[in-house]
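question for whoever is on the cluster today: can someone run the full assembly for these? two chains, 306 residues total. i dont have access anymore since they changed the login thing
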Amino acid sequence: MTKLYFEDFTPGQAIEHGPRLVTREEILAFAAQYDPQPMHLDEEAGRNSMMGGLGASGWHTSSLMMRMICDSFLLDSTSMGAGGVEEVKWLKPVRPDDKLTLRTTVLDTRRSRSRPEIGIVRLHYELFNQHGDGVMIMIVPTMFGTRDSKGPS
Amino acid sequence: MTKLYFEDFTPGQAIEHGPRLVTREEILAFAAQYDPQPMHLDEEAGRNSMMGGLGASGWHTSSLMMRMICDSFLLDSTSMGAGGVEEVKWLKPVRPDDKLTLRTTVLDTRRSRSRPEIGIVRLHYELFNQHGDGVMIMIVPTMFGTRDSKGPS
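^ ran it for u. tokens below:
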């Protein structure tokens, strides 16, 4: 497989990945460690919350999405990471036994002026459940290596 | 301890929490599960990356911050959660043996017009390492229960 460089991303391009099953056990384990709010740990507390039932921590959903991004294309790319996230929205709860799919869409691309060996690709990530409902979106400006930074080909 | 309601938050109010030690083991464990990019898993890969050494996944830092938010005040509040995050910035890498402190600052507060039993508090979170450097910021509009939604006192 050829590594993805900055030049390989074009606006509008879409990459699909999944599905990924989410288990009750991992929802509870993540919540116990990182976000022990009752609606992420207990079915009844979830029903009595705005989630309307046990639901994953938004940070768990974000972390699952990150893993899907890695497996979808990022580990086979020249990604250098990101300094932050422009927007995160948790649209619907992620439930035990949900099957998540990821859609990555390239919003725009630009080469760094000060460091031409780096290009920034703004990536729009959408996570869907098995009903086709969007559960999370985020926009991440991500740095990739440029192909010609490796010298003339 | 009295639960924190919407009315207990006032713009400019600050809450400090920590420190929280971050171990190499937990950095590696989180990365292996959720963000297996080389700079989060391997010292040499970290040195060869923009992180300049092994550094935690930004999603790990976010999850650690969430746990500190829970322990600082959120679990003793009427929080109903948040539908997203306005801004996330990872300013510096989090390293093994870093000791993190959290500062929460209330930006502004407003009562929901359609649901007066809910108030939205925009919270600005800053995470610092033991050198006083900011490692992460985020802004989260969070829903809290209002005191008078419990009926006249």
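summary bc i know u wont read the tokens: Chain A has one domain: 6-150. Residues 55 and 94 of chain A are 5 Å apart (CA to CA).
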